[in-house]
Write a structure and sequence with these properties.
Layout lengths: L3 E5 L4 H12 L3 E6 L2 H10 L2 E4 L5 H10 L2 E4 L12 H19 L5 E7 L33 H5 L4 E7 L2 E3 L4 H13 L2 E4 L5 E2 L1 E3 H14 L5 E4 L5 E2 H12 L3 E4 L1 H8 L1 H6 L9 H7 L9 H7 L1 H26 L4
Parallel strand pairs: 1-2, 1-4, 2-3, 4-5, 5-6, 6-11, 7-10, 8-13
Antiparallel strand pairs: 9-12
Protein name: NAD dependent epimerase/dehydratase
InterPro entries: Epimerase_deHydtase (IPR001509), NAD(P)-bd_dom_sf (IPR036291), NAD(P)-dependent_oxidoreduct (IPR051783)
Organism: Bimuria novae-zelandiae CBS 107.79
Length: 331
Amino acid sequence: MAKTIFITGGSGYIGSVIVEYAVAQGYSVNALSRSESNDTKLRTLGANPVRGDIKSLDLLTNEASKADVVISIADSLAGNFDISQDERWAINFAAHDALVEGIKGTNKPLLITSGALNAMPRPDDEETDETSPGWPEGHPFSRGFESNNKRYTDQGIRVCYVRLAPYVYGRGGSGVKLFMDMWGPKGAGGFVKPGTALSTTVHVEDAARLYLLIAEKGKGGEIYNATSETSVAQKSIAEAICKTLRIPCKELELEDAKALMGDFLAMFLTLKCRAVSKKAMEELGWSIQAERGILEEIESGSYADLEKQSKVSTFESKSHDGFVKQAAGGA
């Protein structure tokens, strides 16, 4: 009989790839869904949609209790960058507690999505790993999802944390697309000067494979970095996006960046992160299979294709609108 995965965030960018890979490996996947359109997407991927959201605590507990593996990706921050940190943590921690309630005492795996930005960068710009110290109290990343680690393991749960790279890329989605959609209509993009902060990336397909490996082999209470490149400058990513969009890439003061894209994203563009994934490779046998790094993917891969399709769609839409006006006797 097939093992069952219950996943929150399964219709999203990363979650949908995990669902796709899990179904291909023979798992039966039940996925939280907030809308009819998400239901349709999940069914197309081969999953069973479960209507609700991460505030549906009784539902989360019930679905987790029926699953062999539980994966939490949904985050109240997604699409809501103005949410306060206190509200974000309250919602997310309540959802995690509800999932734990469904599987406590079973030693079933619970995978909680975290971030490589939880590790404070080293002053010498050397790489960090899962044992590197975190941020001091008061920093936006000082309160991480991992703070409940011991409490969950003490309840008989094989909890593992997946620290995603700041830039998960590929398949024309994630943060790169977010910046494309934001900067394209404005006619300009940019980076926070000097733009030399080095960041970390991972291809979405490599990340999805790691989630499933952790579900199979991950050790309880452990943290695993899902990272690949560790030396890509924030400026280089912004320049690649702007080059693909054929718009200027401006060097911005932090306050100007906040005006262009909001406080959270402006701060994001200043952060350093050089997190290595040696642990996942050595303990779980994970490997990087991406054919392109993030810069090449932006300039000549899925994001370049996305921009071409966008221009074709815009042209076709305008042509169609013009034809309709002509047919109706318009200008």
